[in-house]
Amino acid sequence: MGIDRIAFLASETPVAQETRERLAARYGDSPLDEADIVVALGGDGFMLQTLHATEGLDLPVYGMNRGTVGFLMNAFSEDDLPERLAAAEEAIINLSP
């Protein structure tokens, strides 16, 4: 999978919003309709919200924990993001309506 275009989405918390700004400045920030992957920044609730919001886009979503609970999220790091996205293992999650 080519990962050239990343769309960053963040929860409303200040730490998630600040992280989104830094990552977007470093790696670029594509609109959802042009992205290869979505990076969700927040906690588990935001990850579930992002999965529901992007369900029809057929895009992988990679979550990084910038919230308080992050069982569904990957550990946060600003470094080597494209490499980590390419190496991520896919997990299929079926969302109920």
TrEMBL record:
InterPro entries: ATP-NAD_kinase_N (IPR017438), NAD/diacylglycerol_kinase_sf (IPR016064), NADK (IPR002504). Keywords: Kinase, Transferase. One of its GO terms (molecular function) is NAD+ kinase activity. GO terms for biological process: NADP+ biosynthetic process. The keyword ATP-binding does not apply. The keyword Transferase applies. This is NAD kinase. It comes from Limimaricola cinnabarinus LL-001.
